[in-house]
Design brief:
CATH class: Alpha Beta
Number of helices: 6
Order of helices and strands: EHEHEEHEEHEHH
EC number: 3.6.1.9
Cofactor: a divalent metal cation
Structural class: alpha/beta
Largest sheet: 7 strands, mixed
Protein name: dTTP/UTP pyrophosphatase
Subcellular location: Cytoplasm
Bound molecules: thymidine-5'-triphosphate
Distance between the termini: 31 Å
Catalytic activity: dTTP + H2O = dTMP + diphosphate + H(+); UTP + H2O = UMP + diphosphate + H(+)
Helix content: 25-40%
Length: about 200
């Protein structure tokens, strides 16, 4: 890997911790972008656009970094994008909607160095058990849901609500590490890790 550090364009401590988890040294800068959802824009397109906007905003604050990384995560239910709840009341309402059913989580990661731009998407399905109103209220009172898309944190207390996950745990948490590592490898070497896709091979 190149010795220059990566620039993480994110105010999310989770994303920094996830990069640490796979040994990617980085410098953090906040990336303020307009997160308005466009009418008719698919959730996957929305998170990819925002991840790239954040990476571009981060790159504008570069020093000697090799590239800037941006990410975005959205919880999707019945075609609606559930972002971060504005207050406790909205958090409870989101949790009531998620209770006892499955939803989708779209997470995108983007890299740019001002010339090249690459984006990868991770999509997961998360099954919640039913959460009784009193339990929802207790969870919201912990404060955990308030800065999280969809009003929950898989890595926190909300783990007890999750019956099943199909997809990427790190993606649900905010930064899909498989896609991130693959993108960094491709960025630095021009080839994907392992030289190809394992699932293309014969079993
Ligand atoms: C669903 C879910 C989301 N989240 C978090 C990840 C993100 O921080 C947040 C989604 O909001 P984002 O807008 O993707 O990110 P952010 O505003 O926190 O950070 P930045 O834009 O500066 O990069 O929700 C969890 O921590 N756990 C979860 O299980």
């Amino acid at each position: 890997m190149s010795p220059a550090r990566l620039l993480l364009a994110s105010a999310s401590p989770r994303r920094s911790a996830l990069l640490d988890q796979i040994g990617v040294t980085h410098r953090v800068v906040p990336a303020h972008v307009d997160e308005t959802h466009r009418m008719g824009e698919a959730a996957a397109d929305y998170v990819c656009r925002l991840a790239l906007d954040k990476a571009r905003a981060g790159w504008r604050q570069r020093q000697d970094e090799r590239a800037a990384l941006g990410a975005d995560t959205a919880v999707v239910l019945d075609g609606d994008i559930l972002g971060k709840p504005a207050d406790a009341e909205e958090a409870e309402a989101m949790l009531a909607r998620l209770s006892g059913r499955a939803h989708r989580v779209c997470s995108a990661v983007a890299l740019t160095d001002g010339t090249r731009e690459e984006v990868r998407l991770s999509e997961s399905e998360v099954w919640f058990r039913a959460i009784a109103p009193a339990e929802r209220a207790r969870y919201v009172a912990t404060g955990e849901p308030l800065d999280k898309a969809g009003a929950y944190a898989i890595q926190g207390w909300a783990a007890i609500f999750i019956e099943h996950l199909s997809g990427s745990y790190s993606g649900v948490m905010g930064l899909p590490l498989y896609e991130t590592a693959a993108l960094l490898e491709l960025w630095d070497t021009g080839t994907p890790p392992g030289g190809g896709h394992a699932r293309d091979g014969a079993a």
